[in-house]
Design goal:
4-stranded antiparallel sheet, elongated, 2 helices, 10 strands, 6-stranded mixed sheet, alpha+beta
Length: 159
Amino acid sequence: MEIVIVAFLLLIFFMIEIVFFKLILKRGLHYSLTFSKFEAFEGEDMFVDEEIYNKKPFPVPWVKADIHSSKWLEFAGASSSIIDERRFVTSGFMLRSFQRTKRRWYMKCTKRGVYDVDNATVTCGDILGLITDSMAVPVNTRLIVYPGMIDIDEMFFST
Protein backbone atom coordinates (compact mmCIF):
# COMPACT_ATOMS: atom_id res chain seq x y z
CA MET A 1 0.00 0.00 0.00
CA GLU A 2 2.86 2.38 0.85
CA ILE A 3 4.47 1.80 -2.53
CA VAL A 4 1.24 2.79 -4.28
CA ILE A 5 1.08 6.02 -2.27
CA VAL A 6 4.72 6.83 -3.09
CA ALA A 7 4.12 6.11 -6.79
CA PHE A 8 1.00 8.28 -6.73
CA LEU A 9 2.87 11.16 -5.03
CA LEU A 10 5.70 10.90 -7.57
CA LEU A 11 3.17 10.99 -10.41
CA ILE A 12 1.57 14.11 -8.92
CA PHE A 13 5.03 15.72 -8.49
CA PHE A 14 5.93 15.00 -12.14
CA MET A 15 2.61 16.40 -13.36
CA ILE A 16 3.01 19.59 -11.33
CA GLU A 17 6.61 19.97 -12.52
CA ILE A 18 5.60 19.52 -16.16
CA VAL A 19 2.72 22.01 -15.98
CA PHE A 20 4.76 24.55 -13.99
CA PHE A 21 7.73 24.56 -16.36
CA LYS A 22 5.54 24.44 -19.47
CA LEU A 23 3.85 27.65 -18.35
CA ILE A 24 6.89 29.67 -17.21
CA LEU A 25 9.93 28.30 -19.05
CA LYS A 26 10.15 30.75 -21.99
CA ARG A 27 8.31 33.62 -20.35
CA GLY A 28 10.62 36.50 -19.41
CA LEU A 29 13.64 35.10 -21.27
CA HIS A 30 15.47 37.68 -23.42
CA TYR A 31 18.36 36.98 -25.80
CA SER A 32 20.55 39.34 -27.85
CA LEU A 33 23.58 39.02 -30.12
CA THR A 34 25.78 41.89 -31.37
CA PHE A 35 29.03 42.23 -33.30
CA SER A 36 31.78 44.40 -31.80
CA LYS A 37 32.04 46.20 -35.17
CA PHE A 38 29.71 46.63 -38.12
CA GLU A 39 32.53 46.53 -40.70
CA ALA A 40 35.75 44.53 -40.81
CA PHE A 41 38.45 43.46 -43.25
CA GLU A 42 39.12 39.93 -44.50
CA GLY A 43 41.36 38.09 -42.04
CA GLU A 44 40.55 40.52 -39.22
CA ASP A 45 39.66 39.37 -35.71
CA MET A 46 36.70 40.72 -33.78
CA PHE A 47 34.19 39.78 -31.08
CA VAL A 48 30.59 38.66 -30.93
CA ASP A 49 28.72 39.49 -27.73
CA GLU A 50 25.92 37.19 -26.64
CA GLU A 51 23.60 38.09 -23.76
CA ILE A 52 20.74 36.19 -22.16
CA TYR A 53 18.56 37.55 -19.36
CA ASN A 54 16.06 35.73 -17.15
CA LYS A 55 13.51 38.37 -16.09
CA LYS A 56 11.44 36.14 -13.81
CA PRO A 57 11.71 34.99 -10.19
CA PHE A 58 12.08 31.32 -11.22
CA PRO A 59 15.35 29.78 -12.43
CA VAL A 60 15.77 28.16 -15.82
CA PRO A 61 17.67 24.87 -15.30
CA TRP A 62 19.30 24.84 -18.73
CA VAL A 63 19.28 27.01 -21.84
CA LYS A 64 20.96 26.27 -25.17
CA ALA A 65 21.42 29.00 -27.78
CA ASP A 66 22.23 28.16 -31.42
CA ILE A 67 23.64 30.99 -33.53
CA HIS A 68 23.01 30.63 -37.29
CA SER A 69 25.81 32.41 -39.17
CA SER A 70 27.90 32.02 -42.31
CA LYS A 71 30.58 29.35 -42.52
CA TRP A 72 33.09 32.10 -43.34
CA LEU A 73 32.84 33.50 -39.81
CA GLU A 74 34.99 31.29 -37.58
CA PHE A 75 34.24 31.24 -33.87
CA ALA A 76 37.27 30.35 -31.73
CA GLY A 77 36.75 27.92 -28.89
CA ALA A 78 33.22 27.07 -29.99
CA SER A 79 31.68 23.76 -30.80
CA SER A 80 30.14 24.44 -34.17
CA SER A 81 28.85 22.43 -37.08
CA ILE A 82 28.79 23.45 -40.74
CA ILE A 83 25.90 22.47 -42.99
CA ASP A 84 26.08 23.76 -46.58
CA GLU A 85 26.93 27.47 -46.27
CA ARG A 86 25.72 27.87 -42.66
CA ARG A 87 27.62 27.54 -39.38
CA PHE A 88 25.72 26.64 -36.22
CA VAL A 89 27.43 27.70 -32.99
CA THR A 90 26.00 26.30 -29.75
CA SER A 91 26.35 27.72 -26.26
CA GLY A 92 24.81 26.54 -23.01
CA PHE A 93 23.67 28.40 -19.92
CA MET A 94 22.00 27.87 -16.56
CA LEU A 95 20.13 30.91 -15.30
CA ARG A 96 19.11 31.78 -11.78
CA SER A 97 16.19 34.10 -11.15
CA PHE A 98 16.76 37.63 -12.49
CA GLN A 99 20.21 36.66 -13.78
CA ARG A 100 21.90 38.26 -16.78
CA THR A 101 24.74 36.34 -18.46
CA LYS A 102 27.07 37.75 -21.09
CA ARG A 103 29.44 35.75 -23.26
CA ARG A 104 32.04 37.14 -25.65
CA TRP A 105 33.09 35.01 -28.61
CA TYR A 106 36.36 35.60 -30.44
CA MET A 107 35.65 35.53 -34.19
CA LYS A 108 37.73 35.67 -37.39
CA CYS A 109 36.40 36.96 -40.71
CA THR A 110 37.84 34.59 -43.30
CA LYS A 111 36.17 35.79 -46.51
CA ARG A 112 34.79 39.07 -47.75
CA GLY A 113 31.05 39.55 -48.06
CA VAL A 114 27.93 40.74 -46.31
CA TYR A 115 26.86 38.42 -43.49
CA ASP A 116 23.47 38.58 -41.84
CA VAL A 117 22.57 36.78 -38.63
CA ASP A 118 18.79 36.86 -38.77
CA ASN A 119 17.87 34.69 -35.82
CA ALA A 120 19.09 32.37 -33.12
CA THR A 121 17.31 29.36 -31.69
CA VAL A 122 16.95 29.32 -27.92
CA THR A 123 16.01 25.98 -26.35
CA CYS A 124 15.31 25.59 -22.65
CA GLY A 125 14.29 22.73 -20.43
CA ASP A 126 13.23 21.63 -16.97
CA ILE A 127 15.20 20.00 -14.18
CA LEU A 128 14.25 16.42 -15.00
CA GLY A 129 14.57 16.70 -18.78
CA LEU A 130 10.88 16.01 -19.36
CA ILE A 131 10.08 19.36 -20.99
CA THR A 132 12.05 21.13 -23.72
CA ASP A 133 10.78 24.21 -25.44
CA SER A 134 12.44 26.27 -28.15
CA MET A 135 11.89 29.61 -29.83
CA ALA A 136 13.42 31.51 -32.71
CA VAL A 137 14.74 34.84 -31.48
CA PRO A 138 15.20 37.57 -34.10
CA VAL A 139 18.74 38.94 -33.86
CA ASN A 140 18.94 40.98 -37.10
CA THR A 141 22.62 41.89 -37.10
CA ARG A 142 24.76 42.52 -40.17
CA LEU A 143 28.50 42.43 -40.71
CA ILE A 144 30.23 43.74 -43.82
CA VAL A 145 33.65 42.18 -44.50
CA TYR A 146 35.79 44.08 -46.99
CA PRO A 147 38.72 42.55 -48.94
CA GLY A 148 41.97 42.32 -47.00
CA MET A 149 44.30 45.28 -46.87
CA ILE A 150 47.54 45.10 -48.84
CA ASP A 151 50.75 46.87 -47.85
CA ILE A 152 51.69 48.96 -50.91
CA ASP A 153 55.35 49.19 -49.91
CA GLU A 154 55.72 45.41 -50.14
CA MET A 155 54.12 45.31 -53.60
CA PHE A 156 56.76 47.46 -55.32
CA PHE A 157 60.50 46.95 -55.48
CA SER A 158 62.72 49.92 -54.76
CA THR A 159 65.59 50.51 -57.21
